[in-house]
Amino acid sequence: MSENHAIETAPAGAVSPPVRVATDVLQATLLICVVGWALDLPRRLFGLSFYTEQLLAISLGLSLAISFVNARLRPAWLGWAAAAIALGICGLIAVRYEALTLSIALMPAEGIAGSAILILLVLEATRRSAGGILVVIILVICAYVFIGPHMPGDFATRPVSLSRLLVYLGIDVNGMIGNILSVAVLIVVPFTLMGQVLGRTGGAHYFADLAMSAMGNFRGGAAKIAVVGSALFGMISGSAVSNVLAVGIVTIPAMVKSGFTPYRAAAIESVGSTGGQLMPPVMGAAAFIMAEFLQVSYGAVCIAAAIPAVLYYACLFIHVDLEAAKQGIGGVEDENMLSLTDVLMVVLLGDASQNAMAHGHESIVDGMILVSTILFWNYSLDWLAYRLPAFDRVINPPPLPLVKDGKMLRRNMRQELITETELMSQVRAAGIENLDDVRLAVMEGDGHISVVSTDKEGGNSKKKKEGPL
């Protein structure tokens, strides 16, 4: 093997125990530093105050160490050495930050050397994580610093020495430990962490259930679940990747099963998840950087993004509806799917409990009374409907025939805003290909469409009473 190829990335495989342990320790340390800073623990517990740039330097060092430890370089000790150097240099900058900033105009030797090594490590970590194109763009921009003084007219720049450029990029507040890193560490990480907490405690499943109960019974229900679920989950994550992992794992197989091609199902989910970065309140990292550079509140950015985000998902929703109509794709058949009333009941109970816990301890009793009242009325209505047929007819409408002896009853279909395409999709879902084989199809009081074939073999398919979207 030639010398130029002596350093290579090792083939993919199982992560070794030392790498796994080191990664866990470094990630935990990074989270502890960020959370501790967000909670102002150094001042509250120890009465100490630090510069924000000291935290940023430590965070940069830990991030570089995580990148190099997992780089799988060959030989392996190169990754560990690069991680140790990154931690050492960033630790030195954090410890001596005040002295370095006071002497930055004098361009101290330790500042120049440390900055040069740190810049090289950042470029290499960027190449491994984002590809070589971004590194080339950065190097071209840096090269223009030295070419600019020789350019004519408006293209000309002031001359800058190499040592001053290194110090500026390495330890100046406008360099690598400046605003962009500050936004990533102090805003994006805490927001993402809270989104992960919500997702791990069941928030992602709740949004998926809400989208499924609201859209699952309509035409192209699986695709509409993907759109609505991605929009809801995007409100708490701001990450396209986590959005796909949380919502796409359910919606992509459902879309394929309902009739969408795998290619189109993946495309719908990827576009829907990408839009989650535009959906307030938790948006992508670019939104936080915009607020920082524009010197406006993050709330103002959220308000400005609300209408474009809604329009984005509205266009995607219309597209999947038209595609479903074109392909004759119906709703989702899932007997375990929660109804919208069930989900709304959970919302009412959760809101009542939250209101009780949001105030003083004396409101807990009021909250328990409110929750008990909601449960009581829910049970009472079901009990009355079971015991009193007259009351059942009031709260549950009688079955409405839609097809009789193979003929559509269009007046009843028009009453419930059911199109021929939707009805046929429900008939096919019941295992019947031809309408002439349908003896009877009725919309039940709970919104289901029951289909009975001429050979008395039928099936059930869910259909909400609302009109098609």
- For the record, the count of structural domains works out to 4
Looking across the biggest beta sheet, what order are the strands in? 4-3-5-6-7
Helix content: 55-70%
Assembly status: single chain
Task: Name some characteristics of this structure.
4 domains, 469 residues, 6% strand, 5-stranded antiparallel beta sheet, 20 helices, mainly alpha, elongated, single chain, disordered N terminus
Describe the protein's architecture and organization:
With 469 residues, the chain is mainly alpha-helical. It folds into four domains: 3-171, no CATH class; 184-338, no CATH class; 341-395, no CATH class; 400-462, 2-Layer Sandwich (CRO Repressor). Helix content is 66%, strand content 6%. It contains 20 helices and seven strands. It has helices at 17-38, 41-46, 52-69, 77-95, 97-102, 109-130, 132-147, 162-171, 179-200, 203-215, 221-237, 240-258, 262-274, 285-294, 298-327, 340-358, 363-387, 389-395, 410-415, 420-429, and strands at 8-9, 73-74, 400-404, 407-408, 438-443, 448-453, 458-462. The strands form two sheets. Strands 4-3-5-6-7 form a five-stranded antiparallel β-sheet. A two-stranded antiparallel ribbon has the order 1-2. The protein is elongated, with a radius of gyration of 30 Å. The model is unreliable at 1-12 and 456-469 (pLDDT under 50).
Topology:
Elements: E1 8-9, H1 17-38, H2 41-46, H3 52-69, E2 73-74, H4 77-95, H5 97-102, H6 109-130, H7 132-147, H8 162-171, H9 179-200, H10 203-215, H11 221-237, H12 240-258, H13 262-274, H14 285-294, H15 298-327, H16 340-358, H17 363-387, H18 389-395, E3 400-404, E4 407-408, H19 410-415, H20 420-429, E5 438-443, E6 448-453, E7 458-462
Antiparallel strand pairs: 1-2, 3-4, 3-5, 5-6, 6-7
Helix pairs in contact: 1-3, 1-9, 3-4, 4-6, 6-7, 6-8, 9-14, 10-11, 11-12, 11-13, 11-15, 12-13, 14-15, 16-17, 17-18
